[in-house]
Amino acid sequence: MNFPLVLLVFLAVELAVVSYIDIKYRKISNYWSLLNISLFLASLFVFPKFFFFSFSTFFYPLVFLGVGFFLFTLKIMGGGDSKFLFSFFLLVPEMYHELFFLKLIYSTIAIGLYLLIYNTAKNFDKLALSVKIMDVRGIKSVYGTKFAYAPVIAISWVAFSWDVLKEYFK
User: Fold this and answer.
1) Closest among 10, 67, 53 to 35, alpha carbons compared
2) Please, are residues 80 and 18 in contact by the beta-carbon 8 Å criterion?
């Protein structure tokens, strides 16, 4: 059973728009989450082969909501990011949850490592001084705060879409 192409393209466009907004304003509106939840409810009728109510359908979305809340309390992830990811995962058919999750993990690790190395190299002198004098605030300032997470989701969606589209050309 192939992923519905119209949904694949729609979600790619949505991610492009949300990524732009997240980069520009560093905030994701709750409207996007509400839109995704509404689309999920509509998808139950439009794509009944792919979407249905079951615990397994909500497992990954609820995990992301819980982990996102935890990361939000630690000021690592924004509240809008976690709510958007929760609602976005509702629009990924359950049979594709694990594949998309893996792409999301790979993208998060790759981009996170890149930002860690980049910020360390860019601010090496400041970091070395802060470590030498044990200035925790100085160390934290080298690495900044939260980064826009919607583009990471978008990059993982591109990798995911690549794998899904291979099914069409077999």
Assistant:
1) 10
2) no
> CA gyration radius for the chain?
18
Domain map (residue ranges) of the chain: 5-168
Q: Which two tokens stand for residue 109?
A: 């690790």
Query: What are the helix and strand counts (H, E) for the chain?
Result: 8, 0
Q: Inform me whether the pLDDT recorded for 120 exceeds 70.
A: yes
Q: Which of 79, 75, 80, 44 is nearest to 146 (CA)?
A: 75
Q: Could you give the CA distance from residue 142 to residue 120 in angstroms, rounded to a whole number?
A: 7
Distance, in Å, from the CA atom of 32 to the CA atom of 80, rounded to the nearest integer, reads: 9
pTM, two decimals, is 0.86
The letter for the amino acid at 156 is: S
CB-CB contact of 119 with 104 (8 Å):
no
Two tokens, residue 45: 């009728």
Cα–Cα distance, 111 to 107 (Å, whole number): 6
Whole-number Å distance between alpha carbons of 87 and 39? 9
